[in-house]
Amino acid sequence: ETGVTQTPRHLVMGMTNKKSLKCEQHLGHNAMYWYKQSAKKPLELMFVYNFKEQTENNSVPSRFSPECPNSSHLFLHLHTLQPEDSALYLCASSQGTSGLTDTQYFGPGTRLTVL
Amino acid sequence: SQELEQSPQSLIVQEGKNLTINCTSSKTLYGLYWYKQKYGEGLIFLMMLQKGGEEKSHEKITAKLDEKKQQSSLHITASQPSHAGIYLCGAPSVSGNTPLVFGKGTRLSVIA
């Protein structure tokens, strides 16, 4: 138990569906992240939010739409996805966004399959 | 951009044996994180090294940071089935103030 929860844990969706992934952290952190993990690739950073403001968008296609209503919650809205978007989506949180001092704590991930 | 290369990509060891995993950076290392991941699950933070020559231990896992070689090693002593999983290293970017870059991971299997 890392203090970061994600729902759902598994999701299967068609290319025309709209769905959302949810992440919640109970650590009192200010920064939250979305990562994509595909087989045989390094973890790919998608978005970073710090104090509810988006500070980084790593050239992510617009079919992925993040939302951060407060420092404890982060959503990833999905629409018209492609089969290559199938992956494990991981959420993380940290106190701040310094890579030198702010350890990131990860949720268990959502396994997404796009048919 | 910075890249982290982990070696080996996968490793099978007999229970009770020692093993070492390496993480080599293409650029100067300003710090290094080690995480463990069970298949299909999230990453569990193991330890973070901040200074060259620093060495940290947690139970039977020891990690060292060699700044000059731009490398970190993770050593497991007397491996157990509970050590099985994917070990990932992550490092702050050159500027240090943006999120981490990660290696592809080393998959460890421990057989009885």
Protein model, in words:
The complex is a heterodimer of chains A (115) and B (112). Helices cover 0% and strands 56% of the residues of chain A. Chain A contains no helices and 11 strands. Chain A has strands at 4-7, 10-13, 18-25, 31-37, 44-50, 53-57, 64-70, 73-79, 87-94, 105-106, 110-114. In chain A, the strands form 2 sheets. In chain A, strands 2, 4, 5, 6, 9, 10 and 11 form a 7-stranded mixed beta sheet that branches. A 4-stranded antiparallel beta sheet of chain A has the order 1-3-8-7, with no helix packed on it. In chain A, strand 4 (31-37) and strand 5 (44-50) form a beta hairpin. The N and C termini of chain A lie far apart (31 Å). Chain B is built from no helices and 11 strands. In chain B, the strands form 2 sheets. In chain B, strands 2, 4, 5, 9, 10 and 11 form a 6-stranded mixed beta sheet that branches. A 5-stranded antiparallel beta sheet of chain B has the order 1-3-8-7-6, with no helix packed on it. In chain B, a hairpin with a 2-residue loop joins strand 6 and strand 7. Chain B starts with a strand and ends with a strand. The mean pLDDT of chain B is 92. Classes of the chains: A mainly beta (115), B mainly beta (112). Chains A and B meet through strand 9 and strand 10 of A and strand 5, strand 9 and strand 10 of B.
Describe this structure in a few short sentences.
The complex is a heterodimer of chains A (115) and B (112). With 115 residues, chain A is an all-beta fold.
Distance from N terminus to C terminus of chain A (CA atoms, Å) equals 31 Å
Quickly count the helices of chain B: 0
Could you state the order of secondary-structure elements of chain B as H and E?
EEEEEEEEEEE
Estimated radius of gyration of chain B: 13 Å
Through-space gap between termini of chain B: 41 Å
Low-pLDDT segments, ≥5 res of chain B: none
The percent range for strand residues of chain A is over 45%
Q: In terms of structural class, how would the helical and strand content of chain A be classed?
A: mainly beta
Number of helices of chain A: 0
Give the averaged pLDDT of chain A, no decimals: 94
Q: Largest beta sheet of chain B, briefly?
A: 6 strands, mixed
Low-confidence stretches of chain A: none
Molecular shape of chain B: globular
How much helical structure, as a percent, in the residues of chain A?
Answer: under 10%
Structural class of chain B: mainly beta
Mean pLDDT of chain B: 92
Strand content of chain B: over 45%
Give the helix level of chain B as a range of percent: under 10%
Oligomer: heterodimer
The geometry of chain A reads as globular
Compressed to H and E, one letter per element, the order of chain A equals EEEEEEEEEEE
